[in-house]
Amino acid sequence: MFNIALFGAGRIGQVHAANIANHKETCLYSVIDPNPESAESLARKYQTKVQAIEQAISDPEVHGVLIASATDTHADLIELAAKHHKKIFCEKPVHLDIERVHHCLETVKQYQVPLFIGFNRRYDPQFRRLKTLFDTGTIGKAESLLITSRDPSPPSAEYVKVSGGMFRDMTIHDFDMARFIIGEEPCSIYAQGSNLVDPAIGQAGDIDTAFIIMKFPSGAMAAITNSRRSGYGYDQRIELHGEKGLLSAGNIKENSVELWENTGCLAARPEHFFLQRYREAYIAEWDHFVNVMADRATPECSGFDGEQALYLADKALESLHSGKEIKL
Amino acid sequence: MFNIALFGAGRIGQVHAANIANHKETCLYSVIDPNPESAESLARKYQTKVQAIEQAISDPEVHGVLIASATDTHADLIELAAKHHKKIFCEKPVHLDIERVHHCLETVKQYQVPLFIGFNRRYDPQFRRLKTLFDTGTIGKAESLLITSRDPSPPSAEYVKVSGGMFRDMTIHDFDMARFIIGEEPCSIYAQGSNLVDPAIGQAGDIDTAFIIMKFPSGAMAAITNSRRSGYGYDQRIELHGEKGLLSAGNIKENSVELWENTGCLAARPEHFFLQRYREAYIAEWDHFVNVMADRATPECSGFDGEQALYLADKALESLHSGKEIKL
Amino acid sequence: MFNIALFGAGRIGQVHAANIANHKETCLYSVIDPNPESAESLARKYQTKVQAIEQAISDPEVHGVLIASATDTHADLIELAAKHHKKIFCEKPVHLDIERVHHCLETVKQYQVPLFIGFNRRYDPQFRRLKTLFDTGTIGKAESLLITSRDPSPPSAEYVKVSGGMFRDMTIHDFDMARFIIGEEPCSIYAQGSNLVDPAIGQAGDIDTAFIIMKFPSGAMAAITNSRRSGYGYDQRIELHGEKGLLSAGNIKENSVELWENTGCLAARPEHFFLQRYREAYIAEWDHFVNVMADRATPECSGFDGEQALYLADKALESLHSGKEIKL
Amino acid sequence: MFNIALFGAGRIGQVHAANIANHKETCLYSVIDPNPESAESLARKYQTKVQAIEQAISDPEVHGVLIASATDTHADLIELAAKHHKKIFCEKPVHLDIERVHHCLETVKQYQVPLFIGFNRRYDPQFRRLKTLFDTGTIGKAESLLITSRDPSPPSAEYVKVSGGMFRDMTIHDFDMARFIIGEEPCSIYAQGSNLVDPAIGQAGDIDTAFIIMKFPSGAMAAITNSRRSGYGYDQRIELHGEKGLLSAGNIKENSVELWENTGCLAARPEHFFLQRYREAYIAEWDHFVNVMADRATPECSGFDGEQALYLADKALESLHSGKEIKL
After folding, report:
1. Which of C125, C122, C175 is closest to C145 using CA atoms?
2. What does the pLDDT look like over D141-170, one tens digit per residue?
3. Cβ-based interface (< 8 Å): residues of D facing C
4. Which ipTM score applies to this complex?
5. Are residues C50 and C141 in the same domain?
């Protein structure tokens, strides 16, 4: 049984708290959050305790940490945990500044602790199945990858201001997915974007609609299309075209009920947002991290993966601002 | 080039007129209809002539007749055509009275002319493909056949009164389809029905909603579900369950456009009615009859098939009235 | 927190054990099973104890019992639990003999304890949604109900022999579903069946393929089609046709990945069997029973519902054997 | 009745011949082709005559010309026809060299004859319906347009060599579609491409897999993904995301039959290629041109549209070669 200290009692922290508590090999040992009420409320729910950062990080009973706190605390917490030889699960991103990420990963390397970055979509059963079928040669070599990722509705302008921008906040998942599926590092990137959904996002210096094209050394190409608003739920689809055909992973609908009437056949929307769509992915990634803690596996999604995805986000931004394809 | 005399210039006669004219081996030679205006209008459209019954039937230039006139004229016209050695395509049914059908088929037999009964659905590309896949062993032996047949909206009470009743008018197609797919004659039949759609249909002594179960000597069973009104277009589906799996033939939608919005994903309705859904079937059955006229084939759908489907309709009615399963 | 004694540590007992343990208002207090190893294994998993029947039933700490033991023990256990004023959740059926059911329900009535019968499908989110949309008038009055229920593969002949026959064992769920959806008691029933899947089932005196038609006082009709083997997973679909259109609840596929290649577009099978398909239904029905225990609800699915479904199964068998429609 | 001289008796000429002959207001007057056998075979089929270019173009009986000959003859024939005041339907492209196109259109303007360019996909009922629903405000303002266009299998290297390259030959349809749907001229374009399908295509200096991003003045963006080979038929899909939701036009499947078995649910492929998928589009565009000839309409798809699509193809090529986004 591994005791886990959970940093962050917000929305995503609550998802992880449930998965930690439900896993037969892990126990929610403590909750750490700058907001005492949030921390205590979550701790109470799982009949566990609240700790301060230093207390948790130096507690010899703590085997692993799950960092789901504010983005700007990730790198510091990772380093602190590494120095205390805790095994680390950290939500993406490590940091919004790639230099800081690089320095942080050096520290992790020095202390030789496993670090898993929570790119949850790699554990979505649909995308995982697509990847497995591709890896077993079902469609031959990869040629074209199309990633559709659209949120149901835009975040607040306040969130946008501290998010690091659309590429580092939202598209970063898709950059990781493209690397994961194709299994190569891209050699060029081009990004185009618009502010169409909410003028406040534009005023905050960001875009809300983005198209990206990447090319890989094998000649395969990937297109990512993003929007901060779909109008119909969370749109998460992948198409991978290969020599012999297409593998596609479609949306999961809210239910299987259809209404057929004079105006047409009405089916359910895609599941609303990431808490619904990626519920199983969060459970599966936690199970993987338990295997890492138990030395049955090494992190499938490492600090390097986190750094590379951020690097692509930075380069996409450079392309957007320069109007040029960037060689990588 | 075969010259065809067309009896009946109504809705279904017009469908056949186009197919006769468009077929490279047939020519619409003349149109016969008790309503002179209808006959002339159709003849004018195809730059051909109007004839009287006797004139057409005895015209040595006429190679084949297509009987799409009122139901109660079919048997007389078949006999007349047989006596003049014309090849005969007749819309279903031969007659609403099975004794009359039997007598008519005797006459046809005597004059040794080919008679094709237009059970158009056998030529629907979807159902034909299902049948072909079944015949080639795709799902092994047949176990359960489910036929769904629902009209978009009910006919007038006037039509109902002369229709011979729901089983002889509408379900007859499904009886033929069940025989066609399974390839056996059923050994029992049970029918249940209701008047739910339009009280006027009930007042005319008929039902508008029907469920039928038939059993075949091999143990396979068929269920037919009918309604005079779907509310969403023409619902024409078949499911055939066999030892190894299921073959299903779904509806054809009006188009492939979908609208995804907050209330759900809206797709198109099924095609509206038989003129749309079975357009290709009418063309294909005519092509088969041309092969019959050219001695390249014998009628796949014969007078016997017409008689058997009517027999099942009669027995379904007997079951409905008696509340008993009828042994055949 | 309600303490629950679980009778039966088999496949379905294990499903309930997890749901009891995971529910925030219930606790798995003890496990009772004639096989000591099964009982101990399950108790160990949830860190709880094993009890004997009498011990559990008379334990004042036990608030509710969940009966998931062998079918022939249900009625006895219900009566025992009622006499000790325990609240009762019992898997279907109460008993295979309707007289015994009737007597058992009398006892329950006498002791005034709530009894919930686990017709799990009523809690399937798909069917529940269909029912809710129907109840809110989406399609107007019900006209035709089509229930498709096919198991992935047949049970052993040993199971068949003690199952009470296909109607009491399998179709009973569909009888309940028809009553639940339509909201009326049927007034006639007709059943037809075959032994097509496995000769051993026929030798055990049972059928493995069944078609049933029921008529309701409003004129609405229901057709149930069953098979002990689909060849493609668990086929659980409902179509409800009303005045204004159709509500359909389709299968849930194992995943959303498709492979498009030269031979066609391959999608996933329906989920394999009831453990997968009705996972959420088992959770939801348990949540309902917790509401019953907490006096926030009365059993939506009562002993009477269990009795009526069995009555329809008995009458279906009478119809099958007599070849007649049975008036109810 | 308009008499039509058809230039080109090849694959696409034969499609048009049938549509000309079947239209109630047009008559296939003559066929012109450098290959006498092809010309005569087609003329014989429609019981019409063969003409030489000059003969047809100066024949006072000819009301309109349909140019479906080799690409490099289009501009010359258009000019010749314009000078003889014939109404002109020309297959895309006018010419592969944009200067030549420009000069040709000047001539057409001078002689004031209507010129329709056959971008057939604008007349596909699916895409047309999507466009209509968008124009009527169904999803609000356009934000993202995704065009998928994949051929079933690659052309020969010989064809590739004279095709003008993938952008001018294949993507040109998608450039036109993007302009048609969005209703604006793009202000920037970026193209990326690979040679993955057939090395011979690369040796001929061309690509076979392409991704293009365009931005429009309103901020809307379009992504086009192309391949010379899908492995599963002709993949022709459009997604248009707007403020309120998504309009998508999916593929048309070869049939509606599905096979459900243990390995999954197999549905039909998309229709094989343009002759099948765009059969109705060819008929509809011809009907539009008949309206143009009868002065009931002006060309919806003009020489200017042909020029603009070619311009975008040229700029895409410039982007591909320079690795830069091109401002338009």
Report:
1. C175
2. 999 999 999 999 999 999 999 999 999 999
3. 230-232, 253, 260-270
4. 0.95
5. no
